Amino acid sequence: MPLKPRILSVAPMIDWTDRHCRRFHRALTQHTWLYTEMITTGALIHGDRARFLRFNPEEHLVAFQLGGSDPADLARCAAWVEQAGYDEVNLNCGCPSERVQKGAFGACLMAEPDLVAQCVDAMRQSCGIDVTVKHRIGLDYDESPQLMFDFIGKVSEAGCKTFIVHARNAVLKGLSPKENREIPPLRYALVQRLKADFPDLQIILNGGIKTIEDIHQHLEWADGCMIGREAYTNPWLLTRFDSVSEGGAISEVGSRAEVLQSLRSYVESELAQGESLRNLTRSWLGIYHGQPGGRLFRQVLSDATRLKTNRWSVVEEAIACTADKQFA
Hints:
Layout: E1 8-10, H1 19-28, E2 34-35, E3 39-40, H2 41-46, H3 49-53, E4 62-67, H4 71-84, E5 88-93, H5 98-102, H6 113-126, E6 130-139, H7 146-157, E7 162-170, H8 177-180, H9 188-197, E8 202-206, H10 212-218, E9 224-227, H11 229-233, H12 241-245, H13 256-262, H14 264-272, H15 277-281, H16 294-302, H17 304-307, H18 313-319
Helix pairs in contact: 4-6, 6-7, 16-18
Active site: 95
Cofactor: FMN
Family: Belongs to the Dus family. DusA subfamily.
């Protein structure tokens, strides 16, 4: 079965890419892959599984990212992910946080390619959707490529054909997750060499990609690009993604205010079910990034007193601070 193309995607980001964020992103781009934040196998097995697996039908194509290192647990969870209707299940082998390391998964798994291969094999045996792996290019301050090449070689033999590569090392001790996204140097050339050595694998580049120009440059050799924080801080960038992935004109999504107005029925339905306006709109704060009234828009949608009212009128008040005020 041919691999689904993943030309552009939005990275899984803990505490950021929840289903409300993904629903917002889908209003900006129709053909970009969306990823859940990482959910652990323990959360699915012992927690509120239905809540963790819930997503909006509009989100397709959408992938679920799992955190774990026990093949049996991962297989069990992968089957649930498929049953829930996701298009892909992704194994996290890139998160460097100490909390994740204590659970013996995330980036530290790069040092255990045999175990990851067992995990991938078990997941593939239990589900029929794509099983992919997201990882770093190395661990700590060792810049030798051998660890990554050995990791890719072993895991690909287990049947994984898509690797999402964050082009930085993961420093397991001494750096915070935020510092791990900034301090280890980006080494795109190493990922390009990886693609040359494994031409039959789908290699998706992640890390430091912020502009459409960056994307075009990397797509000269990579199979796809995954965009992280820029998609959250400057979400309007996503309106240009379909022109890249589909090779056509920029999507006609309307103005920023029209995009937000298109989400009104979704927001009001969620509010009626007890969701908070803060949770529904926190991913919207950057939509007027660099635009007149953008700062005031963010202030209104961040005001605790206003947000407590849980009314759509707060969104209209925020839009009224911008050049789109005629749409409020």
